[in-house]
From TrEMBL:
Residues 5-212 form the Flavodoxin-like fold domain. It catalyses: 1-(beta-D-ribofuranosyl)-1,4-dihydronicotinamide + a quinone + H(+) = beta-nicotinamide D-riboside + a quinol. Its EC number is 1.10.5.1. The enzyme apparently serves as a quinone reductase in connection with conjugation reactions of hydroquinones involved in detoxification pathways as well as in biosynthetic processes such as the vitamin K-dependent gamma-carboxylation of glutamate residues in prothrombin synthesis. GO terms for molecular function: dihydronicotinamide riboside quinone reductase activity; metal ion binding; NAD(P)H dehydrogenase (quinone) activity. Its cofactor is FAD; Zn(2+). This is Ribosyldihydronicotinamide dehydrogenase [quinone]. SUPFAM superfamilies: Flavoproteins (SSF52218). It is found in: Cytoplasm. One of its GO terms (cellular component) is cytosol. It comes from Casuarius casuarius. It comes from the Eukaryota.
Amino acid sequence: PLGRKVLIIYAHQEPKSLNGSLKDAAVEELGKQGCSVTVSDLYAMQFEPRATRNDIVGCLHNSEEFNYGVEAREAYKRGDLSDDLIEEQKKVQEADLLIFQFPLYWFSMPAIMKGWMDRVLVEGFAHKFPDCYSSGLLKNKLALFSFTTGGSKEMYTKGSISGDIRYLLWPMQHGIMHYCGVKVLAPHICFAPEYVSEEKRKEMLLAWAQRLKALWKEEPINCSPEWYFK
């Protein structure tokens, strides 16, 4: 992994949180391996989650009727996206691995991270129909979703109240990452950290650091519907 580049997209308000510690552990462990690690700390950056006219610098492709997808695509081609987007796209472009670190909100990622997906993964940059899924424009990259939950592991099983955790991963892993051609590593899930002992939380951190040691040897998961819904 010497010289491999990792981008951590991190969404938590509190550096002392478990999410903050998981992010720090990844920076430390991957750095030790000789990877170069960049962090996009979305809350600290006050990252704008809304996809608006402000994302396009200068004139519009069609000033009569605003279509965000079309305008972003055309602006990307012209090099007229706003600076914050160009900055994030550059980080993505250079990365071999994207790690998304966040607390699960309402069976999904926090709005600020969803906004990152909405704004950064522009057509022409990340995907371009029919160049999607295995031929998506970001092929040769890996992604990993690392997150914490409120509910226990038992709650996220097939017969249980919240259903199989994989159902929630489907839109994130398949619908976004795999759509853009990115290969997905198995998610890293810390279940209900708020309800366990300090000791257990330390173990969670250790397990993550341990996994990162051998991360580059891992095979991506099968991103087909069968994997998620079987």
